[in-house]
Amino acid sequence: MKARKFACLAAAGIMLAASATAFTACSDKNKLAEEMFNFGDDYYKSVNSRYTLNYDEMIYDDFTEGINPDRWVISDSVWDQWSTDQNGVRPQNVFLVEDESNPDTHLLLRANGSYYNMDNDAMYSAEERAAYGDGTNLFTQSQGYGVNCGACISTVEAFGPGRYEVKMKACPRIGALTSMWVYSWFTLNDGSVQQNEIDIELGLAPDFTQAYFTTWTSPSNNTNMPTPVDFFINDGKWHVYSYDWVVDAEVPYVDYYIDGIKVLTIDSNVPTTNATLNLGIWCPSWAGGGVKGETGVSVDSRMFDSDFAEISWWRYVPFQMKNWEQRPVQNRNYADGYIPKKLTAVPSAQKCANGNFERNSDSYGAYGNPWKDFTVTDPTNETYVAGSSAKIIQENANNYCAEIVNGGLLGQWLRGAATGFKYKLTGKYRTTGSASAAFRYTYVLGYSTTSRTQGNKTVNLGSSADWKDFELEFTIDNASARSIRYYLMNSANSGSCYFDDISVTYLGN
Hints:
By secondary structure, the protein is mainly beta. The chain has helices spanning 29-36, 42-45, 47-50, 126-130, 374-377; strands at residues 10-11, 14-15, 59-61, 72-74, 94-97, 107-112, 151-159, 162-169, 177-187, 193-202, 210-216, 222-228, 239-246, 253-258, 261-266, 275-282, 306-318, 341-343, 372-373, 389-396, 399-405, 409-415, 422-432, 437-444, 453-462, 468-475, 483-490, 496-508. The chain folds into two domains: 10-343, Jelly Rolls (Sandwich), CATH 2.60.120.200; 361-508, Jelly Rolls.
């Protein structure tokens, strides 16, 4: 693989798209470092005073020219399954983006949760799902038909010490783990398997108030350091995640940064062998899914349909160092020759699963339906009356909808909805009798479905004998909130309300 070389070109301290101009265009290497790293703290900026940077082998990729097959492979693999119900990473979840209204987003990595519906996949048409690519149907994998899976790209070449950086938005959903990591494995002379790894992991535990940094030198030797941050990792904003991998020291170490601010140093279990670089999102149990239970699946699983991690660019600047070893390493399984679908707009991820109610409770299989009748299962802090119910019904031969009788509550979980997060809710309703349609959300003080709740808010929509469209915006204003449950309800506690085509989208923070 040929390394991409650079001219001096920077703005706001972050390297812009650069041409293949030879390094000789820059007469002052110190000036180049100042321009590239002119943000963050003094320690981050002064990298060139601590190490010798090899600009001739520097690599920068903003994916505006696609995914170069000489540089990257697109993974099609399952790893670390470990008795959990995750289904690895699939090439159909990798997308390229050319969106004039979102000029920073170039690469999109999708995670499909437990409520993913292959037959209602908005990213692909029915024809594409039936026969995608060269006669290869990527939507009928034996591992779960796309449920609980993610996406990953890996470099062809294995790299050594240096500064690694990615500008990205982490996937905002509990159960999906967004990561940049170097990884290699090989067999030693004694037959044992050596695993080397350096990770930045976002969404682990599950928790969006911390980033997780890890080093490995074997399957059993690792250092995992959860590190608090002063923002919510899933806030939908761009952040630059970086680490300096240093081996030419008495004790090898890794310096970790977020937005150019040093947040941690790890000096144990640091690899000294080259490794491939990975950018990915996947759905392991330790990101909130849980291990298989008696039913064969996790009860508290990835409670969403699909969502995304957005990537703007990735960069690697090698350090000229000794004391590290180059070994042959191999990529995991990948889809040779796969060409990702190109999008002309960044999709607005749907925070509501089965909003059109066309999948009934029987069609969801072991994971169940995202719509829960909270009238029966959790009446705490809610208003309900005898004879109330909430369920999905078949309105006619062509349509399913929600029916709320008396004071029923039909709702979903939205885990990871923190204070300051703003959403838009749209849909339609109709009523019979003296019913009055309403929307309610309850604050949840953690990411788990067993977390304590604290108060709720109700928005009355009104009454209408005919289907009536509605739209409203709401903001999470409880400082302790980390998730919400939201409900369709009848605030009159009599008559019946009907809802359909429910949509919840994130507006920002």
